[in-house]
Write a structure and sequence with these properties.
alpha+beta, 2 domains, three-stranded antiparallel beta sheet, two-stranded antiparallel sheet
Amino acid sequence: MTRSELIAEVASANPHLRAPDVELIVATVFDEISAALTRGERVELRGFGAFTIKRRDARTGRNPRTGEAVPVDEKAVPFFKAGKELRERVNTQPAARPRAKVSA
């Protein structure tokens, strides 16, 4: 699901809200999650999952084209762990067939 599809789903489920308001709500939720992660905080959405930051140490990597050793700096990467309720829902639902992508 893309961001625009999420906005359309929320708008159709809440016809009393204007489309620009739904777009603002979705953007605000994503912005707040991003801001909390930037501050190093954990974001937990009960029944859905938790977003955290994991630190990756500096290391020596390899250039795949040349095989040359290259230094890779330490970095922080966002990490998502699904909650119990989400895992159970995913595992009890019939497997959804992936949608075909249409190229323009």
